[in-house]
Amino acid sequence: MRRFTMPAALVFAGALALTGCASGDGGDTAATGDESCSSIAAEVRDISNGVQNNLAAPASLEGLQDYLGEASERTDALIEEAGDSDALIDSLGGFQTALNEVSTYAGGLEEVPSEEDPAAMTIEQDPDELASQQAAVQEASGAVAASCDTESDTESE
Predict the structure, then answer these.
(1) pLDDT tens for residues 96-122?
(2) What CATH number matches the domain at 34-155, 1.20.120.660, 1.10.3210.10, 3.20.20.70, 1.10.357.20?
(3) What is the DSSP letter of 46?
């Protein structure tokens, strides 16, 4: 059973990837625009989740900064993909700003010896500031999804 599960999962993942690429062709129909916006919003949600998870439990400061840099680059690519939707571009800009603020926050973090094992290093964080940064990223991600809803409402009127 296991032999069939992995290839089937790979075929399914490949089909999803092709579908995602095909839906982002920038066509003129409202459905295609909605699909593209939904695809962008889903990617932003993935970036947001990854940033929040990496921020909550970073393996290293260097790894965290590298991940945040990749998240910013992915967001830049999404801004390019957004086309001429002002609401979507504005919300993606807000998300990028939230990522920049997280990077600034992460730049001030320090690695310190772990209380459990002084030979191991851990990253010291203020729980309130961590929660604030995660909430800001989550809120900015939600604004991207909301801009898709607003855009589709405007087009249907």
Answers:
(1) 999 999 999 999 999 888 888 888 888
(2) 1.20.120.660
(3) H
